[in-house]
Amino acid sequence: MATGSLPKPASGWSLSPEDKPILIAGAFILVILAIGTAYTLATQGTASFLSPVYLLQQLQVGAFLGIVAAGAMLVILLGHIDLSIPWTLTAGAMLGSAIGGPYAIPVGLAVGMVVGLVNGLGVAYLRVPSMIFTLGVNAVMRGFMVMLTGGYAPQSTATPLMSYLATGHVLGIPMPLIVWAVLSVLVVLLLQRTSVGRYIYAIGNRERAAYLSGINTRMVIILAFIISGACSALAGVLLAGYSSKAYQGMGDPYLLPAIAAVVIGGTNILGGRGRYLGTVVGTILIVLLTSVLSVMQMPEAGRQIIYGLVIILMLLVYGRQRGVIA
Amino acid sequence: MTPDNSPFLELSGVSKRYGGVRALENVDFACRRGSIHAVLGENGAGKSTLIKIIAGVVQPDEGIMRLAGQPVRFRDPLAANAAGIVCIFQELSLMPDLSVADNIGISNPPRTRLGLIDKRAQRRRTEELLARVGCEDVNPLEQVKNLPLSRRQMVEIAKALGRGPRLLILDEATSALTSSDVLKVYDILKKLGEEGLSLLYISHRMHEIEALADTCSVFRNGRHIETFPAGTRGPDEIVQLMIGREMAHVYPPKPAGRGAVPPVLEVQDLRWGDRLNGVSLKVGKGEIVGLGGLDGQGQRELQLALFGVLSGLSGTILVDGKPVTLSSPAQAKHHSIGMALIPEDRKTEGLMLPMSIADNIGMAAMGSLTSGVFVDPAKERAAIQRMVDKLKIKVGDVADPVATLSGGNQQKVVIAKWLLTEPRIILLNDPTRGIDVGTKQELYQLLRDLADAGASILFYTTDYDELIGCCDRVLILYDGRIVRELQGDEIDEKAIVATSLNLPTTAETPFSAEAAP
């Protein structure tokens, strides 16, 4: 034990406890692909799961989930949770496409940020547990959206720009994937290279100690919820472009997979620990698992059972490792 | 009955390794019946490992442990408990949201015939146990979180007694106690000793050991150095045995009187609820001002109030003669004020334990470690290394979690975090609690150096020695106000204790007044 030897540069590839879940999830992705390929080889004689076209297509679908999960992760790192994702996503999509024209996307994002601001204020200032507050906000948003359309399906359609961002290609790469990649770079920079990123981890570990370190914990919490709301709305805008219109309930299938992707990626559900790369890997794992199960013509019931079991199993594996460290 | 001097607990040739580190090496150790046996040593000397082995928390790699002559091997703490070995650990093990009675009965509550918990019997038993530790004034139905820290520790002792121990281990169990409570604990422990209970007692407070123990064992670097009857060696000799080298003066010399210094921090008639009842004080540039008095007289609240944590204050706070309003630690930290608080509980208030040493050190001064919006890694590494060197923090790798450090080094990390903000006003809340002698000495020197460099220090401590040794002035608080200021030669134990206790209030004893919420 030398007094104060300099640390290895943080960019070095030493295996930290936080890398293990990422490696395990990555290995599991390969297992899923192998099983899927074995199935297609046996039934169709092709390895369609390994074709670049299929993989790019999956990543394109995964981008929507990945964008939602990126925002969800920031909130989870704080030790909170954002359950208002489904109707924030829907509201962003519906109001954005209702406005139409060049303002469609900014308005959609603004809606998400306002919802995030309300969530943040409720959690940071009113000190309502985020699980309850965001659940309430989700219900309120749902009510607003039903009120807006009078209970009928919205008539508005996506703008051309929304469609392009959701379905276009640049150099053969789907646009949503590019949006996801840009967002990912921003989130990584935020988490690893800014004070706010450091504060997010600090608050997730011990909010009181962070507060007593002179950190403006309320602002950090509010900011994280705003980003989460914006991410949900962004996914909503893209999804509306993808299916060329916004519709009620379009966000419902995104809440649990987004949280699952974050947690499978090794982020502690109680906050304070986790790497963004894990969330990306977790997203891909969930998208591939869903896809492979449906190609294998697994009945819906069986798909749900396997899906749930995988999440529990992965967390059990991580939990055992953590127990030793703690 | 066997005579008094037969060992109740006997260890021979016990060794324990953690990875490559030898925590205990070939230790022979014995503890007699009815003996109050002090175990002394710096942090990392092997005391904790010794206790963990005795209490069944870890198993020895080699060696034999005998209890009343019979070889024993405990698989887990429950087995040790069953054999009559009960531990009171440094970290309080009470559940804050449960009542005192529920806490005391937690592992083995009295039951009714239906197998349900017999609340009435549990309450009766709690009352008996509290009476045994002299805490009749604690309501068994009170939630533990509403009790001051010193009362909680007494509840902890009562809880341990409830398990019917034959060997009671106290690991820093008096570190949160006020002097008056410590005296009570002495009486209780002495009475227990007379009843034939063996006591293993770990404390870093030398005068407690002198007052209490009949036998002392010194450990150093995992070895048992020497056991001797208490009183046969002077404190200096004991300290020397513990650190293995000659001890210089524990406290750095105080500067001679410099006459009046302009106050950097001034407080006028500060009030908060019924905890602060009009506090006025001044702290000058380069001064170390001690806060004394019984525990829970508003010292903590005063520091939190100054640091902007409490809302609903009245009164005036002046920094450099200008009134300021501080409504959050972020404001107090701002360089125009330049305040820092070393909080009471380093594990929950000072540190993010799972985060790295580097992250913790940088946490309060992130603003100065960034270029533009991004953290500057080179600047950050340099600043952290500077702090590690300056405070001589013993680290392997600053990327390790801060939880892997010893208590003394963790406290140094908390202090390093704040020194990086270059504070002008430093508030310390009992910073040496549970820290070994060597590190304490370094901290005293550090405080004096900081003061000499121009910092104003407001130092609350429950250890009177520190008030006497460290402080230029001492303010004694009682019931949320300052009742006396001691200066220069006036600062001695007698004056401090007398002022803390003998108050011109009513016939009411300060003990019961202290317990009132």
Short description:
Chain A is built from 13 helices and two strands. With 326 residues, chain A is an all-alpha fold. Chain B has three domains: 7-243, 3-Layer(aba) Sandwich (Rossmann fold); 263-338 and 423-515, Rossmann fold; 352-422, no CATH class.
Question: Would you give an account of this structure?
Answer:
- The complex is a heterodimer of chains A (326) and B (517).
- Chain A has 13 helices and 2 strands; from the N terminus they run H-H-H-H-H-H-E-E-H-H-H-H-H-H-H.
- Chain A is mainly alpha-helical and 326 residues long.
- Chain A has a domain at 49-253.
- The longest helix of chain A is centred in the N-terminal third of the chain and has 26 residues, at 52-77.
- Chain A is globular and about 60 Å long.
- Mean pLDDT of chain A is 87; it is low at 1-13 and 322-326.
- Chain B has 517 residues and is an alpha/beta fold.
- Chain B has 3 domains: 7-243, 3-Layer(aba) Sandwich (Rossmann fold); 263-338 and 423-515, Rossmann fold, CATH 3.40.50; 352-422, no CATH class.
- Helices cover 32% and strands 25% of the residues of chain B.
- In chain B, helix 4 (119-132) packs across helix 5.
- The longest helix of chain B is centred in the middle third of the chain and has 16 residues, at 179-194.
- The relative contact order of chain B is 0.11.
- At the A-B interface, helix 8 and helix 9 of A face helix 10, helix 11, helix 12, strand 18 and helix 13 of B.
Biggest β-sheet of chain B: count, sense, barrel?
A: 6 strands, mixed
Termini separation of chain B: 46 Å
The first-to-last residue Cα distance of chain A is 22 Å
What is the fold-level CATH name, i.e. the topology of the largest domain in chain B? Rossmann fold
| Oligomer designation | heterodimer
Helical residues, percent of chain A: over 70%
Mind summarizing the main beta sheet of chain A? 2 strands, antiparallel
Helix content percent band of chain B: 25-40%
Key phrases:
heterodimer; A: mainly alpha; two-stranded antiparallel sheet; 13 helices; globular; disordered N terminus; B: 517 residues; alpha/beta; Rossmann fold; 3 domains; six-stranded mixed beta sheet; 18 helices; disordered C terminus
